[in-house]
């Protein structure tokens, strides 16, 4: 592989099928990013990836103000399952919400579900913006998939439509739960986390959660955490005890200059 094909630092999610020699159109937004932000030109190398086709080294074939065509050249990583936990959360203020989505993506969440509760302060969620943040985070952290951003739901709707077989771990700030490490001891099967709003869950909501057989109410320690801190702390603990934190690190890695080691 030549230096241009292996050019470091630019890695883009591409939903289109990826196969050697098959051109893919990356669209106007990606053309702007590559041309004006990264100062790239036709012939330069980038990385393309998606969950279905893995990761590929690619070459920019054409690049203009409004379009970019890239051609996959060589497979770098095969497709692999990334069935991480779900994170369900009450929407919070924009800056904190953006950071929470970014970190949840880095921690391997496979689905992000905005949930409106009685004390949720925000009235709307820009799902497209959250999807863009998740995509950028996936590009940076070298995962193959991008978390699905679900349409917002009410807490009542979330519980009513909950899928069989998935345990919902609820961060209960009221003290009604068991320590999260105890709740996750020996856990297996698909999991999800629910973090409430800044004002906490209403009493009636806690009662409804307690009645659901798939819910495990947990505490996150002796301190009261902000909503976004609680969501990320719970997700990190879950991954460490019952998720992909038990998997050995990848044998290959990319340093800050984009050079791949261990290949």
**Helix proportion range:** 25-40%
Query: What is the top-level CATH class of the largest domain?
Result: Alpha Beta
Q: How many strand elements? A: 15
Give the name of the CATH architecture of the largest domain.
3-Layer(aba) Sandwich
CATH superfamily of the largest domain: SPOUT methyltransferase, trefoil knot domain
State the end-to-end distance.
13 Å
Mean pLDDT: 92
Rounded to the nearest angstrom, the radius of gyration is 20 Å
Instruction: List the helices and strands in order.
Output: EEHEEEEHEHEEHEEHEHEHEE
Largest sheet properties: 8 strands, parallel
Helix count from the secondary structure assignment: 7
Which stretches are low in confidence, meaning pLDDT under 50 for 5 or more residues running? 1-8
Briefly note the CATH topology name of the largest domain.
Alpha/beta knot
Q: Can you describe this structure?
A:
The chain is of the alpha/beta class. It has two domains: 11-78, Ribosomal Protein L25, Chain P, CATH 2.40.240; 86-246, Alpha/beta knot, CATH 3.40.1280.10. The protein has seven helices and 15 strands. It has helices at 27-37, 94-106, 127-141, 155-160, 180-184, 203-211, 227-242; strands at residues 11-13, 24-25, 45-50, 54-63, 68-77, 86-89, 111-116, 148-149, 153-154, 167-171, 178-179, 191-195, 215-219, 253-254, 260-261. The strands form three sheets. Strands 6, 7, 8, 9, 10, 11, 12 and 13 form an eight-stranded parallel sheet that branches. Strands 1-3-4-5-2 form a five-stranded mixed sheet. The model is unreliable at 1-8 (pLDDT under 50).
């Amino acid at each position: 592989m030549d230096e241009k094909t292996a050019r470091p630092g630019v890695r883009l999610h591409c939903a289109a099928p990826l196969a050697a020699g098959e051109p893919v159109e990356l669209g106007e937004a990606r053309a702007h990013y590559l041309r004006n932000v990264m100062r790239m030109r036709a012939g330069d190398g980038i990385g393309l990836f998606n969950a279905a086709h893995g990761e590929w080294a690619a070459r920019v074939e054409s690049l203009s103000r409004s379009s970019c065509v890239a051609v996959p050249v060589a497979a770098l990583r095969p497709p692999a399952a990334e069935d991480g936990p779900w994170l369900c959360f009450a929407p919070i203020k924009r800056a904190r919400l953006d950071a929470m989505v970014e970190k949840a993506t880095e921690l391997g969440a496979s689905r992000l579900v905005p949930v409106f509760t009685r004390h949720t302060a925000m009235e709307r969620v820009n799902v497209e913006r959250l999807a863009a943040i998740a995509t950028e985070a996936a590009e940076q952290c070298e995962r193959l998939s991008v978390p699905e951003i679900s349409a917002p739901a009410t807490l009542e709707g979330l519980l009513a439509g909950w899928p069989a077989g998935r345990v919902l771990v609820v961060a209960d700030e009221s003290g009604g739960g068991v320590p999260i490490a105890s709740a996750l001891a020996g856990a297996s099967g698909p999991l999800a986390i629910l973090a409430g709003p800044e004002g906490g869950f209403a009493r009636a909501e806690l009662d409804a959660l307690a009645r659901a057989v798939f819910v495990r109410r947990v505490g996150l320690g002796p301190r009261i955490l902000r909503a976004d801190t609680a969501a990320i702390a719970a997700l990190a603990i879950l991954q460490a005890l019952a998720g992909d934190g038990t998997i050995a690190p990848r044998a290959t890695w990319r340093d800050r200059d984009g050079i791949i080691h261990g290949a």
